[in-house]
Amino acid sequence: MKKEFEKLFEPVQFKSGIKINSRFVMSPMVVEGSTYEGYVGEEDLSYFERRANVSDLLISGATSIAKDANAFGYGLTNADESYLEGMKKLAATMKKNGAKAITQLFHPGYAAKYSYQENKNVYAPSAIPFSFLDYPTTELSEAEVEQLVRGFGEAALRAIYAGFDGIEIHGANHYLIQQFFSKTSNKRSDKWGGSLENRARFALAIVDEIQHVIRENAERPFVLGYRLSPEEIHEETVGYTLDDTLYLIKQLNERELDYVHLSLFGPSGYRSKAVLGNRTGEVIARVVKENLNNATRLIVAGDITSADKALEAVKYADIAALASAVIVDPEFVEKIKVGAENTISLDITNRLEELKLPRNFYLVKSAMTSNKSIPQITLDAIK
């Protein structure tokens, strides 16, 4: 490899004891390869087998902890024991070439549009109208909130039994955990809403529940990470700022997670700067890194589509998460390692079949458009 990229292949040690040999991970991405009920499908397995060499740490796409929480149509679910055998196959496929496999657990909350189509009901922290939804929401009762916390723990236990090496809690991208943290979507007056402390309570209760499950049941080194969107700002509407996120980071520091994962979108991606608050204009990843304890690694995602961008990303964070780049070029990391980074291709013309993208992948291809790096010819090829 070229000397300038050696930093990308420095090893990283996690608090749990797991070690990876580069500063790359495969970012969690919904790929629409499951059955409509959320069971692992053959297309899921083919997709991950094709990318089993991307890095030493692979993170699955968002996996719902509840049957009545379908956000994607053909996304993964881990809602009860009936999903365990498929999860075992998925973990084994992700690990077949020696990588560690992480499963990302989430609940979509009001974003469960497919569940609404079936059941005419979706849950949210508060039953308020949202301008971007064409259906109403149902407010979770306190008992239902507490059951969801337990549900995350139960899904974590199944992940351990399935053979995964870790769990990422999905607190980003406007799904239920973020909905509780946001004062835009959380208008509750009980202990789960109102103050910043109360709005963070759901996220932290889930972290505590899963940590307890890991301590009691994992007989091997087991990673726990937390993914978050550092700001929620919609024009004049502010759900929370980076200052609020730093409060959450402080609470996560006390729990000594293995990593925090920043989900960043848009043309700036990993370089995104704070829009409001005391750190306005500063690179978000740098600010978060400064506020993390030394034992917790920072992963950053967003527009890391070249070797140079990856190198810049690890100036701000410990690890670069690859998403679109390894959808379209699974050999991305290997090409940098052998000094062939100039052959990385974001154009999938005549390569679609060998990339093993599920037939329903087109349903989520819009997620690849935010950073403007993926060429239109590639987007057009995904139909």
From TrEMBL:
Keywords: Flavoprotein, Oxidoreductase, Plasmid. InterPro entries: Aldolase_TIM (IPR013785), NADH_flavin_oxidoreductase (IPR051799), OxRdtase_FMN_N (IPR001155). One of its GO terms (molecular function) is oxidoreductase activity. It comes from the Bacteria. Residues 7-340 form the NADH:flavin oxidoreductase/NADH oxidase N-terminal domain. Pfam families: Oxidored_FMN. This is NADH-dependent oxidoreductase. It comes from Melissococcus plutonius.
